[in-house]
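A student in our group prepared the protein record below, which I am reviewing. What it holds is a sequence and that sequence's fold in C-alpha cell form. My question to you is simply how this chain folds and whether the C-alpha cells agree. Do not assume that whoever made the record got everything right. I have pasted the whole thing underneath without changing anything:
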Amino acid sequence: MDAELDELQDDALMVLFANGERAAARILTARLLPKVLSHASRVLGDRTEAEDVAQEAMLRLWTAAKDWTSGGAKPSTWLYTVTANLSVDRLRRSGRSVGLDESVEPEDDRPGAEEQLVQKGRMDALDRALATLPERQRQAVVLRHIEGLANPEIAEVLDISIEAVESLTARGKRNLANALAGQKEALGYAK
C-alpha cells in the first residue's frame, strides 16, 4: 500500500491522513521534514532550535489536515510559510530579529560530505583510468569531455585534423569505459 501512496501528490496524502491513513503521514513526513528542517536551520542558524520549529510546523500540518481540501495551497508551500513564520517569531523572541534591509543567505547548493566523497572517489577512478590511455587519446578526451572544448578547438590545440580528434576521442572513450567497467558498483553507478 505504501508504494501506491508514494505515487500520490502531497495534497492527496493530506486528505488520506485526515481520513485516518497513517502511512500517508509517514510518506509526507519523509518528503517534507528534511526540507523544513533545512529551511529552519538556515534561518535560525541553530540546529536544535530548527528541530523545535520543524516539529512544531509538522504538528500544525497534522492539525490542519482535518480541514485540508485538494486544489488549494500545496502542503509544502503551506509548511514553508508556517516554518518561516515560526522561525521569525523565534528570532524576535530571542532578540535576534532580522531587519528588512538584511538579505537572507542564499541556499547552499554544494553537495554534502557524503556526496563529496562519492564524487572524489569517482574523480580518482577517472584519473587512474585516464592515466592508462595513450597521451593523445588522454589529451583529446580531457579537452573534449572535461574541459568542454569543441572538436575544431581541440584540433587546433593538438595540431591535428577534426577527423583525427573524433577518432582519438572515440577510442579514448572506449578505452575509458573498458578501464572503468568493473568499478560501476563501487563508484555508485549500479545498485
